[in-house]
Design a protein that fits this description.
The complex is a heterotrimer of chains A (101), B (167) and C (639). With 101 residues, chain A is mainly α. Chain A has three helices and one strand. The chains are: A mainly alpha (101), B mainly alpha (167), C mainly alpha (639). β1 of chain A pairs antiparallel with β1 of chain B, so a sheet runs across the interface.
Chain lengths: 101, 167, 639
């Protein structure tokens, strides 16, 4: 019994959509951030699936780099959240609208 | 690959991811996300990406989620009050966008490649091995690899800079 | 020889740059020395070139040097090319020679002025521009110099710009000159259109053979002449020159008497070929020149400001030069230009010395009896007055009589009215110049509240003495044949000038008896004017006022300069002002401003609309990203 490629990609797409929902609907910055991680992982899954399908190592290398990037991004992003929380005493991104002006 | 295992992992992955997004308590969200990433690692193993699967467990489930956990504890984030955790109703059109996105996505995926993935062990495939990925990294992708290292250093410095109470 | 041509204008330019850029590190004395040294260099170079020109008699008497291509657009090719022919030689030597003396004089005159470095920088810049003007081979380069000297004139008239009146005088000079410049520019455009070149020599070569009809040359020459009336202060554009006396006196001597104001004369002579092809223009020039000479002389009689008298005298003498040009006696015009440069510079510098000695007093009525206190100034000015009045043996006599003789023989056909007016003007000139001399140096000292007069330092007197010698000897280069000479000056210049048949006949006219008779007549008139001035101003000091009473109307007219300034104010300036005001209030504010502000408003409002999107909600920004993603997906779906 084999799994069609389409099913794996569909799983990746749904995972991505869940991430999008988290980013759009949640106000807590930490949850939003986790949702972004979910989106990145959805893309990774698609990469791995295609890499397997084409029997090509490049996709895996890309995933490796995306993980590296995600690690760096999480470190910086969380530092920013801490900085914002320290200054504004909130982690709700709807309260943070200094970009308005 | 083993189809049954795939659907089990996939179901658990999507379910725990949904739990992450819908749950009001950040602490629960983090635990659910760790679980989701573990399932994802399982999917990677099924797809014979062993190196990446191990990395997924090490980097994501291990390092990154611990970082999240620390931050949540550090900030002492409380569960959201009902209604406060989500954007107000007047932003209903976000929902329309998401629905449109899912529909279009499924249509496009359905139009895509119709092939199927070989079951595990059917074909001798070594592209997921540490050796194959390592070879690619240190030959073809040597420069990007070095740059990635530099980027991590920059992120490290930047994080220290941002997190310092007084600069 | 020709390859050193560019050095002549380069020296003053260097002086300008040194004084202008590094003046603050120079002492007052160094600044003056640098400026004077540069002029000295130019003077020696020009003198050297003149000598080699003289040695070249018979061959082509011109040096040309092309430096670089200045403007090259399509067919229009304008190089920076200098030439040095007899006409340029005369002009260059006058500019650098008289300029040198005035620079030396300025070191003494401007001592202690806080702006002395600026002063010398401007003076050098002026010399550079003037040299450009007279050495230019094409009209565009000439125009550069033309505008450049105008600029320097403006800067130096308004040198003491803290005084609003003086700054305004500078602006008046500049604006009035613009009117003339417009004529010049239009003339250049027409000439380029017709000849396809702006090189003066090429135009001169092509002009006689070209078939364009007489009116073409009449129009072009009249336009050029309009330019000349602006710069050379002829009716109707002369009004700026009297006001230009607001500048420092050495500036008045150099720019507004000896050199810049003669640029118009030079322009006409340089383009003599064109002018000779347009006899009606020539008649116009002669008429305007004579009218200007006469009118300015009548105004000069009643003025009380020593510099104003000299200014009107300058206008009057320039009028003489144009009379000479108008009757085709170009060399006589240049001759008078040269001698006038000598004696008018002398007179101005002498006046400056008097003003200096009296601590800034310019009113003739408050002078008097300075003969004892200022012997050097008195003697040299006496020479200058004798020269300008046309007393035989001095330079003014020779040049003026050559002009009168040319005018007389040119218009023998009808009652030679130009000559007649000229003779009357000689009398007037003699009268007002001696009036100036007598009121300044003779009679009772008018000591009420004036500082003790003192003689100027030798650095100012030495240039006066040198100029006095030039004023005496300058005429002997052009002794007419009737007096046993052979008019060397005329023959020297002849290769450059167009032959205006009628005038040539007059000069060739061997009727020496008539010429000598005319000379005697003008001498008698000049002496008569001098005698009358002596009668009125030294003999019976009360007489002057009585005379003014008797001729009240004439005196009033003359004293108020025929109300020309007022007329211009009423007829030109004020209507223009109110018309502009109307345009401002109705057209500019009501229409233009609204359109401009409206354009700004549209963008302001549009920006306000777009700003609603920028509400600082990051999630909304993310949603917009999603919208973009949807568009891309839709595009893929449709393809």
């Amino acid at each position: 019994m084999v799994v069609p490629l389409m099913h794996v990609i569909t799983v990746a797409g749904l995972l991505f959509t869940i991430g999008v929902m988290g980013v759009l609907f949640r106000r807590n910055a930490i949850i939003v951030f986790m949702s972004i991680e979910i989106m990145l992982n959805a893309v990774n899954l698609a990469f791995i699936a295609f890499s397997r399908y084409h029997n090509d190592v490049n996709g895996q290398v890309f995933v490796f780099f995306i993980m590296t990037l995600a690690a760096a991004e999480v470190a910086v992003g969380l530092a920013i959240i801490i900085g914002v929380y320290r200054n504004l005493r909130t982690s709700y991104i709807t309260d943070i609208n200094s970009l308005k002006h | 690959m083993s189809a049954a295992l795939f659907y089990i992992f996939a179901g658990l992955l999507l379910g725990s991811a949904l739990f992450v997004v819908l749950n009001r308590n950040p602490m629960y969200s983090i635990v659910a996300l760790v679980f989701a990433f573990a399932n994802l690692a399982g999917l990677y193993f099924l797809l014979e990406a062993y190196f990446i699967g191990v990395l997924q467990v090490l980097v994501y489930a291990g390092a990154i989620m611990v970082l999240f956990l620390f931050v949540v504890m550090l900030l002492n984030v409380q569960p959201d009050q009902p209604q406060l955790g989500v954007v107000p109703l007047e932003r209903w059109w976000y929902g329309v966008l998401v629905i449109l996105f899912v529909v279009l996505l499924l249509i496009l995926v359905g139009r895509g490649a119709q092939g199927s993935l070989p079951a595990a062990g059917d074909e001798a495939s070594s592209i997921g091995s540490v050796r194959a990925v390592g070879e690619a990294l240190f030959t073809k992708y040597l420069l990007p690899f070095e740059i990635a290292g530099l980027m991590l250093t920059v992120a490290l410095v930047g994080t220290v800079f941002l997190a310092k109470r007084r600069i | 020889m020709a390859d050193t041509l560019y050095l002549i204008p380069l020296f003053p330019l260097l002086g300008f740059l040194i004084n202008g850029l590094f003046g603050r590190w120079l002492s007052e004395r160094q600044s003056g020395m640098v400026a004077t040294g540069m002029i000295l260099g130019s003077f020696f170079l020009s003198a050297q070139l003149l000598l080699s020109l003289l040695a070249r008699q018979g061959e082509q008497v011109v040096f040309v040097q092309t430096l670089f291509s200045w403007i090259h657009v399509g067919d229009l090719h304008i190089p920076v090319r200098y030439l040095f022919d007899p006409l340029t030689a005369v002009m260059t030597l006058v500019i650098t020679g008289v300029g040198l003396l005035i620079h030396i004089y300025s070191i003494g005159y401007m001592r202690g002025d806080p702006g002395v470095r600026r002063y010398f920088a401007f003076l050098n810049l002026f010399t550079f521009m003037m040299l450009n003007l007279v050495m230019a081979d094409n009209l565009v380069l000439l125009f550069l110099g033309w505008e450049g000297v105008g600029l320097c004139s403006y800067l130096l008239i308004g040198f003491w710009f803290q005084d609003a009146d003086k700054a305004r005088a500078g602006m008046k000079a500049f604006i009035v000159n613009r009117i003339g410049d417009a004529g010049f520019i239009i003339a250049m455009i027409i000439l380029y259109d017709q000849f396809g070149t702006l090189s003066i020599s090429e135009i001169a070569q092509a002009a006689p053979g070209i078939d364009v009809g007489r009116s073409f040359f009449i129009i072009v020459t009249i336009l050029l002449f309009i330019g000349a009336t602006g710069k050379s202060a002829q009716v109707p554009l002369y009004v700026w020159l009297p006001d230009a006396m607001a500048g420092p006196t050495p500036v008045s001597a150099l720019i507004h008497a000896a050199t810049m104001v003669t640029a118009g004369v030079y322009l006409v002579v340089r383009n003599s070929v064109l002018f000779s092809l347009a006899p009606p223009t020539m008649a116009l020039i002669a008429g305007i020149g004579m009218f200007t000479a006469f009118m300015a002389a009548t105004i000069a009689i009643t003025q009380n400001d020593i510099k104003k008298v000299l200014a009107y005298s300058t206008i009057s003498q320039l009028g003489y030069m144009f009379v000479a040009l108008g009757v085709g006696a170009y060399s006589a015009g240049i001759f008078h230009l040269m001698t006038h440069a000598f004696f008018k510079a002398l007179l101005f510098l002498g006046a400056g010395s008097v003003i200096h000695g009296l601590g800034g007093e310019q009113d003739l009525r408050k002078m008097g009896g300075l003969k004892k206190a200022m012997p050097g100034t008195h003697l040299t000015m006496l020479v200058g007055v004798l020269a300008i009045a046309g007393i035989p043996g001095l330079s003014g006599f020779f040049s003026k009589d050559e002009i009168l003789w040319a005018a007389f023989s040119h218009y023998t056909g009808f009652i030679s009215w130009i000559w007649l007016m000229g003779i009357i003007t000689v009398g007037l000139t003699s009268f007002y110049m001696f009036r100036l001399l007598f009121l300044t140096f003779y009679g009772q000292p008018n000591e009420k509240g004036r500082p003790e007069p003192h003689e100027s330092p030798s650095i100012m007197i030495i240039p006066l003495i040198l100029l006095a010698f030039l004023s005496i000897l300058g005429g002997y280069v052009g002794i007419p044949e009737s007096l046993g000479g052979h008019n060397a000056f005329h023959h020297f210049l002849a290769p450059v000038l167009a032959v205006f048949t009628v005038a040539e006949a007059a000069i060739q006219d061997t009727n020496h008896l008539v010429e000598i008779l005319l000379m005697a007549m003008s001498t008698a008139v000049a002496l008569g004017g001098a005698y009358y001035a002596y009668q009125v101003y030294v003999g019976q000091p009360a007489h002057a006022d009585a005379l003014a009473q008797k001729l009240q109307l004439l005196h009033r007219l003359s004293f108020n300069k025929y109300y020309v300034d007022e007329a211009y104010q009423a007829l030109v300036v004020r209507p223009l002002n109110s018309f502009s005001g109307l345009l401002w209030r109705w057209f500019d504010e009501k229409l233009v401003d609204r359109v401009v502000n409206g354009a700004g408003d549209i963008f302001f409002q549009a920006g306000g609309l777009i700003r609603l999107v920028q509400n600082g909600l990051i999630q909304q920004y993310a949603a917009f990203i999603l919208v973009g993603v949807l568009f891309i997906m839709g595009y893929i779906y449709l393809n």
